[in-house]
Amino acid sequence: MLRQVLLNPGPVTLSDGVRAALTRGDWCHREPEFAELMQSINRRLAYVYSDAADDFEAATLTGSGTSAVEGMLQSFAPCDAKTLVVSNGVYGERMAAMLKVQGKPFMSTEGEWLKAIDLNKVTALLDANPDITTVVTVHHETTTGRLNNLNELGGLCKTRGLDLLLDAVSSFGAERIGFDEWNVAAVAATANKCLHAVPALSFVLARKSVWSRESQACSVYLDLVNYHKAQHASGFSPFTPSVQPAFALDVALDELQQHGGWERRGASYRSRAARIAETLDGLGVKTLLPREEYSAVLWTWLLPEGWSYERLHDVLKAEGIVIYAGQGDLASSVFRIAHMGDIDGDIEHVCDILKRCFA
Ligand SMILES: Cc1ncc(COP(=O)(O)O)c(C=O)c1O
Fold this sequence. Notes:
Elements: E1 5-6, H1 16-21, H2 32-47, E2 56-62, H3 65-76, E3 82-86, H4 90-102, E4 106-108, H5 119-128, E5 132-138, E6 140-141, E7 146-147, H6 150-160, E8 163-167, E9 184-190, E10 201-207, H7 208-211, H8 224-234, H9 243-258, H10 261-282, E11 298-302, H11 309-317, E12 321-322, E13 324-325, E14 334-338, H12 347-358
Parallel strand pairs: 1-12, 3-4, 3-5, 5-8, 8-9
Antiparallel strand pairs: 2-10, 6-7, 9-10, 11-14, 13-14
Helix pairs in contact: 2-9, 3-4, 10-12
């Protein structure tokens, strides 16, 4: 099969080392070597950000990013106090849907997808609802590519002593997280986006003091306090973890460290974004959002006149390049390009093909 350059927001194009790790061996998840690996992975996940290393611990679970987000809300969103969901895209709205099915008290800002977080609205809701103790939001809203300004929202959480539960599924490993200055209580993320491993494992980093609270979960499988207890005591998980993806994550974490950590990874995504933007600018293709509002990880572009998403997708796919559609009302007007994965050697090819399409 033709090499696929994955410009969708995960899973990513793997490095040879991560791909090879998948065949490390047939291990039993109840043997000490796997327990040791799990504990090492959890330790290293907490060290991806040096700011988190002292005060946060990880629990890893088998499931996609959504399972980590849902597990975080299950375990830490309170049953007897209100949570405020600050949303401006699909993933914020999904967290409100999770709290609804969990039967927990919450309110949502229901922000517009194309707009930044409205801090005045958040402040007014907090003033009017003193029973809100927890704020949940999305760091990088992959719906549009917006990197939400958490210096403002997180600053408010810090000043008011509110727990911030963060969906960092598409930013962990490439964008700055202000663990202390944003009053982060927990962060949910996944192996197969900015960390460059494979789908199957996701994780939550939470403050040690938050792990020691009573679990708020009304689920057996998604009670992460239980995972944390078991994994930190023995290295074993309450349920069968995905073994080979753990090998891949182990190597992906080595590679992240060898390549200079999250800051260097973010910088490399920004330089890929800049090269692609230079090409698309030259072809008259416009961005959906003002470019200073984008993350390093993904940008959304408006489909040029005369192009449907399906046609563009198929032309690029025939050249081994996979892009991503817009969601909801954006489905027929945009395409998304993510900058993750082992694709340094592919960017010029991508630019050449884009030029051939739109020239
Ligand atoms: C910000 C964000 N949250 C949650 C998810 C859900 O992750 P998954 O599809 O791995 O369940 C995604 C997926 O792209 C995401 O970008």
